[in-house]
Design a protein that fits this description.
Length: about 400
């Protein structure tokens, strides 16, 4: 085989999805090397070129309208570099999502299915490594947000989304009942150690996707009741260490607290109320409360973490109208690839719950894991369509 043939074979093995998977694994193992997250930005810039080549009129005009509105908000609040960075930091994921799901549609019968097999083995091996590290970190006395496997300090939420990624592969691609059950139970335990209370409604949503029908309600009732019974029995045997922390964390969402910055409750409920107070209808200005690329916004609140979730961050900076437009933008992109209402409702709920849970749009690791989770769902939908055709 001559040099030209070798070079041609090598280039043919380098595909967009493999490149994206490589970048994902770099982020998974980035630990505290945050500069490595810039790889995602390079990917996003390339995906803009891909988007412009394949965009349709609906997505293009929607993006133009929403982007124009955000730029007007930025101009209205005064010109700041971080305003442009904030818009970019939130909008870049639609291009990455478009590129990966478009590739799935184009190459589903050939290279995507082959890629999925190898990718599934890799993320399964990494999940085992993550679990061992989480156990070690828990018993070594790490702070709860640092019980995160390879994801670094305060990366426990990222570990939760890695569990969702692997479970989506097992639920909808691999379909190994014993392995799925073991990983499901292990993920519940690991995320309890890390106090990722938001993981549990997300994984129930993921599991319940197949049962989003009238016929499936009975399965939800049966298995849900059985799981609840097991948890109650274990909680009673362990002296209330399971249920009480969960109830406390979820009750925080409904605690508004006071607006005294020297004496406040740093809960999601308080932060949501505070974000609404600061943002109003049109927000205080894109990027004004953010820290992006080591640049602080002009209204940055110091130790008060207003960006505890994507919803609070967008609400404070872009206001109620801006938040609705951000959600609408991502929803329109999702509707392009998940045309059936059952599928669209599910992925929209998955994204919305994630935005309520943590700052998914401002953490490249989390949103990238979520996009790959949607890729597995897209493959599953295609296989179901072919089966029923």
């Amino acid at each position: 085989m001559n040099t030209a043939s070798i070079k041609k074979n090598l280039l043919s093995n380098i595909t967009i999805e493999k490149g994206m998977a490589f970048i994902l694994l770099v982020l998974v193992f980035s630990w505290e090397f945050h500069f490595l997250w810039l790889l995602y930005d390079f990917l996003a810039i390339f995906s803009i070129y891909f988007f412009l080549k394949h965009v349709n009129i609906v997505l293009g005009s929607t993006l133009f309208f929403v982007l124009s509105f955000f730029i007007l908000l930025s101009i209205n609040s005064g010109f700041h570099i971080i305003s442009i960075l904030s818009i970019w930091d939130n909008i870049k994921h639609v291009f990455v999502l478009f590129m990966l799901l478009f590739q799935v549609e184009r190459h589903i019968e050939g290279r995507i299915l082959e890629f999925t097999k190898g990718f599934g083995f890799i993320i399964g091996s990494v999940f085992l490594l993550q679990s061992l590290l989480v156990i070690y970190q828990s018993y070594a006395g790490y702070y709860k947000d640092d019980i995160s496997g390879t994801f670094g300090n305060a990366g426990s939420h990222s570990f939760a989304y890695y569990c969702l990624l692997y479970l989506s592969y097992l639920f909808y691609i691999k379909k190994s009942n014993i392995l799925t059950f073991c990983v499901f139970i292990l993920s519940l335990v690991m995320n309890y150690f890390a106090e990722n209370m938001g993981y549990y409604p997300l994984v129930m949503l993921l599991l319940g996707y197949k049962w989003m029908s009238l016929k499936g309600i009975k399965y939800i009732m049966i298995y849900g009741s059985l799981l609840l019974l097991i948890i109650v029995v274990l909680d009673s045997a362990l002296g209330g260490v399971l249920i009480q922390p969960v109830l406390y964390r979820f009750s925080e969402f409904f605690i508004v607290g006071s607006r005294d910055f020297n004496n406040f409750t740093p809960s999601r409920g308080f932060m949501t109320a505070l974000a609404f107070y600061l943002g109003g209808w049109f927000g205080a200005g894109p990027g004004c409360f953010s820290e992006i690329y080591s640049i602080f916004g002009w209204e940055h609140l110091g130790k008060i973490q207003i960006n505890i979730s994507s919803v609070t961050n967008l609400l404070a900076e872009y206001g109620i109208v801006g938040l609705i437009l951000w959600i609408s933008l991502y929803s329109i992109f999702l509707k392009r690839f998940f045309s059936k209402w059952k599928d669209f409702i599910f992925v929209s709920m998955l994204l919305l719950f994630s935005m309520l849970y943590n700052k998914v749009l401002n953490d490249e690791r989390v949103i990238f894991l979520l996009i790959f989770t949607m890729m597995f769902l897209k493959i599953y939908i295609h296989k179901q369509f072919k089966t029923n055709d």
